[in-house]
Amino acid sequence: MATALPRKVLLGVTGGIAAYKAPALVRALVKAGAEVQVVMTPAAHDFVTPLALATVSRRPVLTDLFARDGSGRWNDHVHLARWADVMLVAPASANTLGKMARGLCDNLLLACYLSAECPVFVAPAMDLEMWRDAGVQANLAALKERGVRTIGPERGELASGLVGEGRMTEPEALVEALQQALIGPSKLAGRTMLLTAGGTQEAIDPVRYIGNRSTGKMGFALAEEAALRGARVELVTGPVALLTDRAGIHRTDVVSAAEMAAACKALFPTCDLAIASAAVADWRPANPAAAKLKKGTALEALTLEPTEDILAWMGAHKQGGQLLVGFALETDNELEHARGKLMRKNLDLVVLNSLRDDGAGFGHDTNRVTLIGRDTDPEALPLLSKAQVAQRILDRVEALMPHA
Ligand code: CTP
């Protein structure tokens, strides 16, 4: 089963000619959804500029353990190491590999490595003879023994003109290898997933509407995570203030429940699975006014009519093999109501949100949910970031999917 993807990458850049590829590596990591903090060794400055790396990572680049200007400022390596989900040293020079193996600590990168409790990867890059050197190999073996994982080096033409092993793995391939090493192959890869997100707006007149407090954060976190796992995501969203530019996500913007229903009906038949995370309005004004209602209008009551239940429609039209996941937002008798929805709407999984939990629900960056399947006990998750909740939901979805 998949585990957490590397959201926060601490990238250590050391002094080797392959450091000229570091900005491209940062770009590839950011494109893959990571936040990247670059830490350089002093020697790396001879090969690539901090300005280039700071620009592509959108964060200041750090080199020194402490400022040498008498200010007493220092870079907190413990905090940096704890911040990271994964540390990648690329390129990893023979010198840095040796110091890592020996537990030495004369720069910030090494201090971060010694403090890191997250998975650590190194992408060695050096010339052929250096790579073959018994001391370098012994250092690498010692690091591997302690759980450090290596990516590359590759065979090919080296900066010296020699041909052989020693080239740093190319940035795109490095990111791919990092993801594969951390998540393993995903059953969502190559699948098409329909996802509803955000809330809907139901017109009262051309300027007023009935809406709800949904911000779309949970749905967009699901879209990002599914795309990271290789799914093609058909995201149908109500009006939200969120952007996504990740490859693999195709976005359809809608306003009302009726528009969302029409988009979903067109897309669902060609999808392998659907997740309905949208907060769809259950009622809409029966007769929205064509012109703006004036303040003086004697508006004593608003006649409402029910909207179509999109998820129920998908449940009724589900074909063999299609998976359907719904959300349930409850305030009382939560489990019972959520189980009722699972059966009534012909779902495979319900994500139960309780408005009674602190830090859960609309607008928060965190959420606390319970996953309710057909044949399993409810799985109550702790308070997690919405990105982590998305990972856990998709882990459960993958467990329900047949092997490709
Ligand atoms: N949903 C939908 N279309 C609607 C209403 C809801 O697709 N018109 C979906 C939501 O996206 C969510 C699930 O149905 O996945 C649960 O919605 P909710 O409004 O909580 O439940 P209802 O079935 O409407 O029942 P109740 O209002 O009685 O709780």
Describe the structure in your own words.
This protein has 404 residues and is of the alpha/beta class. It has 2 domains: 8-182, Rossmann fold; 192-400, Rossmann fold (3-Layer(aba) Sandwich), CATH 3.40.50. The protein is built from 13 helices and 21 strands. The strands form 6 sheets. The protein has an 8-stranded mixed beta sheet, with helices on both faces. A 5-stranded parallel beta sheet has the order 2-1-3-4-5, sandwiched between helices. Strands 6-7 form a two-stranded antiparallel sheet. Residues 1-5 have low confidence and may be disordered. It binds cytidine-5'-triphosphate. Cytidine-5'-triphosphate binds at residues 196, 257, 276, 278, 280, 282, 307, 309-311, 326-329, 341.
What is the CATH superfamily label of the largest domain?
CoaB-like
The profile of the biggest β sheet is:
8 strands, mixed
Note the total helix count.
13
Q: State the helicity in percent bands.
A: 25-40%
Structural class: alpha/beta
Distance between the termini: 14 Å
Count the E strands. Answer: 21
Mean pLDDT: 92
Q: What is the CA-based Rg, rounded?
A: 26 Å
* Proportion in β-strands: 15-25%
Number of domains: 2
Strand and helix layout:
Layout: E1 8-13, H1 22-31, E2 35-40, H2 50-57, H3 77-83, E3 86-92, H4 94-102, H5 108-115, E4 120-124, H6 128-132, H7 134-145, E5 149-150, E6 154-157, E7 163-167, H8 171-183, E8 192-197, E9 202-203, E10 209-210, H9 217-228, E11 232-237, E12 249-253, H10 257-267, E13 273-276, E14 283-285, E15 304-306, H11 310-316, E16 323-330, H12 334-344, E17 349-354, E18 366-367, E19 369-373, E20 379-380, E21 384-385, H13 386-400
Parallel strand pairs: 1-2, 1-3, 3-4, 4-5, 8-11, 8-13, 11-12, 13-16, 16-17
Antiparallel strand pairs: 6-7, 9-10, 14-15, 17-19, 18-21, 19-20
The protein binds cytidine-5'-triphosphate.
